[in-house]
Structure of SWIM-type domain-containing protein:
Amino acid sequence: MDVPVAVKLDAESLLNAVGQDLGARGRELAVRDVVADGGGASGVADGRHVWVGVVNGELIGECDCLAGELCAHGVAVVLAAVEAGVVFESLPPAEKASPEKQRFTTAAARLGRRELVELVAEHAVGDRRLATRLMVAAGELGAPSDDEIAVVHRILVDARRLPDGHARWELRDLLDAGRDMVTELEVLALRPVNDGVLDLADEAASVWSSFLTALREAWDVDPQPISDGLAAVHVQLYEASRVAPADLAGRLAVLYADLADDPFLDVPEAYRYVLGDEGIDEFWDQAEE
């Protein structure tokens, strides 16, 4: 099975590999917002959004200048990433695009820039996920603010009141609340993940766990798809965070104690990638205290 392999890059070897002319042009460009991303690094060089990485041993770049190969913007970003200490991983070649994706790619390439921009904007108005991905890719949207975190927190507070409140509720209200929680977390997962987002993920897991007793006793509802969706996005958010494994292990230990006797989250095994062996040990040390 192909797995990422750490690659040591330094400025001198990079410049030798790309050539004197391209290297010189890359060094002249202003770079900002460089972060580790998908085994490589992403950032903005001279106003262009770039991802650079090592695929099958070869340095490649994806830039909205549409150069089709490693460009000066990519060189600028990888130089800044190396200086910032980003560790690159050699990734296996990407699988060939599906025929359907290739068909849409070909169609989009036939459109003029203005027509394509208007089409994307039109659909982003009615699609929160597309709108969020667009704004993140454009550098207009970063990690959620405290106010944005508070809005989602209010949704979770209102959901938690359903089984325990005095207002009348039905099982479908719990399912609807569960779907809403999954949607909110999936949208947040498209943005940089901060501590506030992790707090929301843990809170949503706790709320959903409190619903499961009532839902599992009913014969005419199936909560499993929502449990699976919430579990998947919870792992995704933990993996996307920059929190130290030991701190994540502590979070999971607290959450584990708060869940029902049959937690729907596969704790800690589903988090082994981000925790590592030491993090798993730390989790059990704290969970058994």
Observations:
- The first helix runs from residue 11 to 18.
- Confidence is low (pLDDT under 50) at residues 1-6.
- The chain has three domains: 5-91, 99-137, 146-287.
- Residues 146-287 form one domain.
